[in-house]
Amino acid sequence: GSDLVDDECGVCGGDGIAEGACDCAGNVDLGCGCGEAGPSGCDEICGSDLELDECGVCGGDGPEMCWDGSYVCDTSNCPDAPDGWDGDACSMPDHSIHITSGGSVLYHSSTSIAGFQFDVDGTIVTGASGGDFGQCQSCALQTSDPPNPPSNTVVGYVFGSFPAGSGILTNLTVTIDTSAENICLQNVLISETGVAPGEINSCPKYWQLTCIPIP
Prior knowledge:
Helices cover 5% and strands 32% of the residues. It has a 5-stranded antiparallel β-sheet. The protein has helices at 131-135, 204-209, and strands spanning 64-65, 71-72, 96-99, 104-109, 113-121, 123-129, 139-142, 153-162, 165-176, 182-192, 212-213.
């Protein structure tokens, strides 16, 4: 008579679990349990889906923003802020305007604004939205003059009054001119309510900040 018996997998006369396997289905244990995926992610931990950020940090949040709107992996590499400016629109001089490397236009004005216009040298402006001006119900932005092609000029119309304050005036979307060396605000005209155009202009030191090197 036969002396065959069922192996541990229930197979008559079988060899049982194969060498190196952890179960009858032939699965192996890669370190996270039988048949489970092995260590994964940049931290090589079971079940991890962490990835390296732009700075090479596993599961990191990526670059940090400097005072001028630029991003670095180590804040010690941020450019020096002139006169200790912290990058906050509230601490800008009165009646000044500044563009960050992220395209946000900051402003600080103790008087209401009736309209503005400026050029963003080194770019073609393809859009402007958000910011305090975007929340203004009686305001409108224009970045092109159809049927003319988009230019580098931004015009803000105020049908009433834009109140005094400070913060982000608007956020620009731009196409960078690869032949340019810097992005700069130029030809700035800002009208106070009841005051001639051009009355508000950036202080000289903030004109320096409006030029951002193009990588």
